[in-house]
């Protein structure tokens, strides 16, 4: 094993973007190349980790190199490597501001460097020369903001094939949809196996300045309501319903444009049974991780069976795949939908499949539930606030559906068994997500499942 892989073995498990914390490593290997030779030297590494308990993963790790320790980069320090009678010091290049301009310069030049290919999007303006600031709080990806002009999202875990975020944004460029942040370019890296397509490494997108994400705004509205325990949501300052309605309309607009520029197909007879079976399988796997789900299993399975029985008309299309309040930004003029990657845990091929747009509606409806109820985690016995939470969720869910139907002509929420099943399926996914990432929030989706499975 090389000195560098030794360093990476110690460093990677502590990084937020490293998704397999706690798994036993059986091997680590890396192959790297120089992206820039000076000021500072910038190298890019594909790091393959194999595990005792399942398939290997490949992560992308850009490093910047210095001859002397850089005091202002202490938190980005990866380690020192000895060679040629002296040591060089490796840093996380995404946290080294001096190394961040490089990505944009290569994009402007549409460069190819070793296995890496830079693709600017048409005639888009790329703010070459600006340094990038890392976005704090990122999870599976790492993002850099360049001034107030552009944001580069680096996809840490490499998978062969075009990332759906790039694919969808690229297709939507033609529509000039006002609810997305336009694509400025993307970066790919060849797969070591020439039979595989390249993996997407990064996406550059227009930065939306002076915006606030939907989760922050919605939870501020809920907080206002909780302050006034005896007032209704429409009587309190900070009512969110008008925004929810606009968000419904924005979702419908993005769906319509996706259907226009990407493939669509009416659901065939076998789709319903297959969709129900897939939800069933997800439940079975989820029970292994969250055993409390077993109590709801019968109720959930009958919701899924209803999908196969009712066969509501569905035109399958590309969808967002993981729509929630944290994925939308409110600007002075309206809503922007971000991050068309789909559910991060799913394999890339399944995230590209055509599906019912009701999946996204269900995701957002779940999110209203989350926003309303997450503060109850600390006060589970506060019946008054629980009642207010229920009211807030119902009001904003209805407003969202109104906005969606006014813009699309289709009422997504009029008692659809498919929507109900999708909400349940999302809540099952959330149970697994919370059990793994925020166990103290597990009760939010678990409680929602009891409501979804009990007759009204
Ligand atoms: N185009 C953009 N303009 C402004 N902020 C953005 C933009 N894209 C992402 N962000 C900010 O970065 C955060 C993470 O972005 P996202 O694409 O959702 O990454 P992830 O896949 O890591 O969740 C968002 O919640 C948002 O606050
Ligand atoms: O990281 P992503 O944004 O791709 O999404 C993952 O993390 C989300 C949490 O940040 C998770 O969303 C769940 O929690 C949200 C509140 O934090 C809530 O608004 C969503 O409705 C709820 O699903 C998402 O499921 C997960 O894929």
UniProtKB/TrEMBL annotation:
It is an enzyme of class 2 (transferase). Its EC number is 2.7.1.175. Pfam families: Mak_N_cap. GO terms for biological process: glycogen biosynthetic process. Pathway: Glycan biosynthesis; glycogen biosynthesis. The keyword Transmembrane does not apply. The keyword DNA repair does not apply. It comes from the Bacteria. Keywords: ATP-binding, Carbohydrate metabolism, Glycogen biosynthesis, Glycogen metabolism, Kinase, Nucleotide-binding, Transferase. Residues 11-96 form the Maltokinase N-terminal cap domain. One of its GO terms (molecular function) is kinase activity. It catalyses: D-maltose + ATP = alpha-maltose 1-phosphate + ADP + H(+). Monomer. Belongs to the aminoglycoside phosphotransferase family. This is Maltokinase.
